[in-house]
Specification:
Length: 300
């Protein structure tokens, strides 16, 4: 099969996106044989990935938001294929793509097909894979409860609006976190376990995360005594109280939460009282900008 052949798996909501259509035509004019398939319902992304790999495609493009990206990355990792992935960010937050330096302009994003792929890590918990970040506590509730209509109107600011409108409902979660040479317990307001750096529409929870170091960055925001007042200031300031976080970098971490903890895996909800997160080093080949902040200094 030609090396310049790729399949774009596009979220169904983007079917009439003229910028995407123009970008696809540009790549075809440059000599790329670029097929397009649309998702319609749950499970479509996995099915389309499997079909693409079975028919010999070595380059896939994920066209959608962070959830679409996660679904496609998980399906590719499950196949243990040498195929590589290009990000075409079309969602509201596009947190992983933004942190990785991927352009939000479709034609510029598709140009990454011509950049060599690099092996990056994935995160895993309970058999589920995430590419960007697992978030817990209030941040994950805000993401889960932000309506699609509000995101259409306000974009990434919708997450902040939702948080401000719901801050009086909050309570801290008690948790115990343990990993190699690390142990922390107490009430937490928010938790980020990152392969990428930001979540929830641009909140930098793991600002130093590297996607190809074989480790997960862990950021814990302990709950202050004045919970509601501090939370309101926190959300209004864009989570800009960096000195309050407890941070570490680990190959794995276990979390115990007596009341259970709401977790968001790149848009996929998860709840549990005992969870073990681990990094999957070099589990996915991705085309990122050569100067991407998420890439370490190692050569391809």
């Amino acid at each position: 099969m030609s090396e310049r052949k790729a399949m774009l798996i596009l979220h169904g909501k983007q079917a009439l996106n003229e910028e995407v259509r123009d970008a696809v035509e540009r790549k075809r004019e440059e000599g790329w044989e670029l097929a397009v398939r649309l998702t319609w319902e749950a499970g479509d992304a996995q099915r389309l990935v499997n079909e693409a790999l079975a028919t010999g495609y070595m380059h896939l493009v994920a066209g959608g938001g962070d959830g679409t990206l996660r679904d496609i990355a998980e399906a590719m990792a499950a196949q243990a294929s040498d195929a590589s992935l290009v990000l075409l960010p079309l969602g509201t937050a596009n947190d992983f793509a933004r942190a990785a330096g991927v352009s939000l302009l479709p034609h510029e994003a598709l140009n990454l097909l011509d950049v060599p792929a690099r092996a990056i890590d994935l995160g895993e918990v309970g058999g589920q894979v995430f590419l960007n970040m697992a978030t817990g506590g209030f941040g994950s509730q805000v993401t889960a409860n932000t309506s699609e209509d509000l995101k259409k109107i306000l974009g990434g600011a919708a997450y902040l609006f939702t948080g401000l409108s719901r801050f009086s409902e909050l309570h801290a979660a008690y948790g115990e976190l343990q990993g190699p040479d690390f142990h922390w317990r107490g009430d937490l307001l928010a938790l980020g376990i990152g392969n990428g750096r930001q979540a929830g529409g641009g909140h930098l929870l793991c600002p130093e995360a590297i996607a190809d170091d074989g480790l997960l960055d862990v950021s814990i925001l302990p709950a202050p005594q004045e919970l509601v007042g501090t939370l309101k200031d926190l959300l209004a300031g864009g989570w800009g109280i960096d000195n309050m976080f407890v941070r570490t970098r680990l190959p794995w971490i276990e979390i115990k939460a007596s009341e259970g903890l709401d977790i968001n895996l790149d848009g996929e909800p998860l709840q549990g009282e005992n969870l073990r997160f681990r990094a999957l080093p070099g589990a996915l080949r991705v085309h990122l900008p050569e100067d991407s902040p998420l890439l370490g200094a190692s050569a391809p």
